[in-house]
Prior knowledge:
Helix content: over 70%
Number of helices: 6
Shape: elongated
Low-confidence stretches: 158-163
Distance between the termini: 31 Å
Order of helices and strands: HHHHHH
Mean pLDDT: 82
Oligomer: single chain
Amino acid sequence: MDESGLVLNGLIFLLIGLELPFVTRQPGEISFGSAVWYGLIITFVLIVTRLLCTFGTSVLMRVMSRFITVSDPNPGWQGPLIFGWTGMRGVVSLASALSVPILTQAGQPFPYRDLILFITFVVILITLVFQGLTLPWLVHKVNPRIGLLSSLNKSRKLSFKRN
């Protein structure tokens, strides 16, 4: 990522920091505790869904390797687990939530807009802080070097044979 991308990311997270007091003050017609609970449930569903997708892709690679040549016919479980855990939310989620209009065409407040923003902030906070802080521990515990290095060596041997 170049410097302009870092500056833009910094500005986005500055926007998150500026919006956070307004979003947490009034998450809509729902109580603060219920809003936090909804945020936790949605975050859990997102993390589990991402893990299932990465493991599903691993299974698909095994099946497809019977019919076509794939980069790694046996990707193992370490890589998909780490890839699934790194699915952190941030800029796109915030942009999507902030794009919800403040008012409807009838001039009424958009229903549950504040709750949508609040849940988005909870998801961003948990995925960036919790998943981000636990990622080094997970990589250390999973120790993916063996599987990833062997597949890297296989691909290097294949690329040298082709040249």
